[in-house]
Amino acid sequence: MPFQTPGTTYSERAQAALDALEGAEDSVVIVGHSLATGYAPLVAAQKPDSRLVYLCPAPIGPFGSVDAPMRAMRAGFSLPADRPDGTSVWDPEVAIATIYPRLPAQEARMLADRLLPGGRHSDRYPLDAPPPVPTLLVYARHDEFFDPAWSRWVAEDAGLRAIELDTGHFPMIEDPDALARVLVAALT
Fold first, then answer.
1. Which one of 56, 59, 142, 175 is at 20 to 30 Å from 72 when CA atoms are compared?
2. pTM to 2 decimals?
3. Higher pLDDT, 5 or 161
4. Is residue 15 assigned to a domain?
């Protein structure tokens, strides 16, 4: 998805995932991690036999305007400032300390060195309601970005089943087997 291109729309960003699914069976599981929480429902809306998973959701898209009684972001957590071109990017050393502290040093270094800039979308969220597909919210107990209390609250507010993993914000890296077990059990 072209997150690094400031000014692209939600639909333009979701199109990359739709293109990748072209020719796939209709029954797919669409997992939107973090900022992709805003784009996964757009893909699911075009794949009516799909299933949708919000993984460590961000306050964007369907959760962008919720009126939760608590902050979404962990206390003390802040994103990098925008640069003059409208993008932001993590300094690798700050990323290692802030967003990858639970990972082995070599893995954290590799991921931090591969981070791309990100830019804001340019339009209003295009869906007025979530797509009518089975949906699950999976959050992380030790999420470095988002407060688990907020994740539980948005799941309950949206009427979604919520499952907690004993990981940080990147369960697919930290404990992929645990994430796979949860997804297979919940979605089969």
1. 175
2. 0.92
3. 161
4. yes
